[in-house]
Structure formats: structure tokens, C-alpha cells
Design brief:
Structural class: alpha+beta
Number of strands: 4
Oligomer: single chain
Strand content: 15-25%
Order of helices and strands: HHHHEHEEHE
């Protein structure tokens, strides 16, 4: 029983560890605390290992649970009811939770409030398009966090963020917002704006 508890606990912990880098940006948006977003981004390189460990640990736990038990020919045996910590129901619940945690990056966007860009573009507006190189983004949750913070600025027309490319392409009215202000907004998320390049 102790072995089963340890396996279940280890499986859940590795699943949590593998998704922490993606969960914290979403929590940061919801809580309005930008700085915590990149706290666990250092875990991202280890994510494949955590996923592998979770699968192996839970796989072994299921093997232990489903393998045929040795029959002991003893008249003194009694059929004791298993408590919940020993049941397949608990292991099944932990497995479902682990799968949800591991797949969190694929549905993280559901929890992100939609940002509305309400910039007013007039004939006197001076629209500029700039690419910002950003360090530290690891999943779609990071993208949404950066986009949310940039969109709060005045004069923002369009924001496209990609964690895979490590950049943000921002179209804005430079009479209302400057490149420095956008960089400051990016840095406030906990990620780092390394450089900017004017596209048009």
C-alpha cells in the first residue's frame, strides 16, 4: 500500500511539475500579478522528462494494481474491504488529473480573458509596425500574457505573439505609444524584451 501511495504521489507531482511553466502565466493574468508569470519557465527544458516520468510511474502503478494477486491457501484469510487509498478509483482519478495537467498547454487559451483592442485610427495617426524579440516564453499561456499586457497600452492596433518564434509583432500609433513603453509592458510580465526591429 505504501508503494502504491508513493507511485500515485510521484505521478501527480511530475505531472504538476511538467505543466507549472504553462499554468503560472494563466494564473498571473487572472490574478493580475504579472511578475509571477515566468517564475517556473526554467522548468520548460525538463518538460519532456517530467512527461516521461509521469507516464512510466502511472503505468507501473496500473500494472501493480491490475496484475493477478497471488492466492494464499490459508483458512485464516478474510476479505477485507479496501479503503479508498487502495482502490482503482483513486488511481483512475489521479490518472485523469495527470492527463489534464500534461495537456494543459493545448487548452490554456480557454482560461484567458479576451483582450479587446480599441485603438482609434485617424488620418493623423502614424501607424508603426515593430517586431520585439522576447526571451522566456514557453507556451501559449505566455503568448496570451504578453498580448494582454501590450494591449493595455493606448494606440495599440494589432498584437501577434509567438512563443515558438520568441517574438511579438506589434502595430501601433506611435503618437500614443512608444517602443519603450511596449518594451516596458513586455518586461512587466517577467519575460525579457531583448531587442526591437522596425518593420514599417
Amino acid at each position: 500500500m505504501k508503494t502504491e501511495k508513493k507511485l500515485i504521489g510521484a505521478g501527480l507531482l511530475t505531472a504538476i511539475a511538467s505543466s507549472l511553466c504553462c499554468i503560472t502565466p494563466i494564473l498571473a493574468i487572472v490574478a493580475g500579478s504579472s511578475g509571477i508569470a515566468s517564475t517556473f519557465s526554467w522548468l520548460e527544458p525538463f518538460r519532456p522528462y517530467f512527461i516521461g516520468m509521469t507516464v512510466l510511474v502511472l503505468g507501473f502503478a496500473w500494472y501493480q494494481k491490475l496484475k493477478p494477486q497471488q492466492q494464499i491457501d490459508c483458512n485464516c484469510e478474510t476479505n477485507q474491504k479496501q479503503n479508498f487509498m487502495q482502490t482503482k478509483s483513486l488511481l483512475g482519478s489521479i490518472t485523469v488529473i495527470s492527463v489534464l495537467l500534461l495537456s494543459f498547454p493545448s487548452y490554456a487559451h480557454i482560461f484567458v480573458p479576451k483582450t479587446k483592442i480599441t485603438a482609434i485610427v485617424t488620418s493623423t495617426s502614424k501607424i508603426q509596425k515593430v517586431e520585439f524579440t522576447i526571451k522566456g516564453m514557453t507556451c501559449s499561456g505566455c503568448e496570451h500574457h504578453v498580448k494582454t499586457e501590450i494591449s493595455k497600452l493606448k494606440g495599440i492596433v494589432e498584437v501577434i505573439v509567438s512563443y515558438e518564434k520568441g517574438n511579438a509583432i506589434v502595430k501601433f500609433d506611435n503618437k500614443q505609444t512608444s517602443i519603450e513603453q511596449i518594451e516596458k509592458a513586455i518586461n512587466s510580465t517577467g519575460y525579457k524584451s531583448l531587442k526591437s526591429k522596425i518593420i514599417s
